[in-house]
UniProtKB/TrEMBL annotation:
It comes from the Bacteria. Residues 39-71 have a biased composition (Low complexity). The lineage of its organism: Bacteria, Bacillati, Actinomycetota, Actinomycetes, Propionibacteriales. This is peptidylprolyl isomerase. Pfam families: FKBP_C. Residues 35-71 are annotated as: Disordered. Residues 1-31 form the signal peptide. Residues 118-206 form the PPIase FKBP-type domain. It is an enzyme of class 5 (isomerase). InterPro entries: FKBP-type_PPIase, PPIase_dom_sf, PPIase_FKBP_dom. One of its GO terms (molecular function) is peptidyl-prolyl cis-trans isomerase activity.
Amino acid sequence: MHNFVPSSRKRRTIRLMGVASVTVLALLLGACGGDSGDDASTSPSTPASSDSATATPSETPSATPTVEPTTLGDLSTIEVSQDMSVEPTITAPYPFVVDQTMTKVIVEGSGRTVPDTSATVQVQYVGINARTGATFDSSWSSGSPVAFQLTQLISGFGSGVVNHTVGSRLAIAITSDDGYGDSGYSTIGIEAGDTLLFIVDILDTELSGPSGETVTPPDGLPLVSEENGVPKITIPEGLAEPTAVQVQPLIQGSGRELGSSDALTSHAVCTTWDGNEYYNDYGEAAVSDASSGSVHQALFNALVGQKTGSRVLVTMPGSVAYPNGNRTPSLAANTSVACVVDILFTSTYS
């Protein structure tokens, strides 16, 4: 996990920010190629007929007939219950395939919109193999919603929820190409070419920027301006370096408070006390981080208790920020810094 990190290292794959089953981890964070190995779970067993117990040795079982899947041009034949307080019930014309990934709105939400396919979302969902009608995963079975960054999922999941609103229940039919393609995912019974059906309840999503009341900071702090939504930090000439960590909201959000063991999605910019901007992730996808994997633990700790939607100025003495310096970019030991962080999303981490 890679947040507020003055380093050229690539971001590590984010772990799920919520209580999730092992299947979720394998399915949604796995490569689209999936698992192509032969596995008994690839072909679900066929239930025995009701008279199989009385069959004589001379009787030869007939082959199970193959049902050709229906190609759906839309999702009008898929019916889903609307009560979002309970796991949905689904009626669909299995087996089916779709030629393009498509979304049907079951319940229209009135919250903010999932901004793009790199956003972090919190959802409840059910995943169904449209060839068999079998559920291969459900967040409902784990007892809690899950939160994750859409860039870590199969592409059809992200494209299916983007531009839809918090409070919505969606039916998303995902083509094989947008799911697990020619390799399938035999561990959970998904074969090459299988269409996937997800029923997704969008419970929350990240903000596109800070949102709240502007706060006038006291004198004696770095100055923060803004250009095209990106904060710029200026260290006034002669301003004394900090002797302790100081946290100053510049925009006071009203959302969920960041907990000490939570996950955080944010944008940040950081400057050394001599005015060198050494980190800036604006213009990229927001970065997700968690206390347990935070590279800059002191900065994460400073943000604990701040609310989602806030823009926060954090100043740290060198003895806290970089007591041993930093290799890439090169920062000397005991370099004092100022960082501005936009808190866009927080959730329980496990």
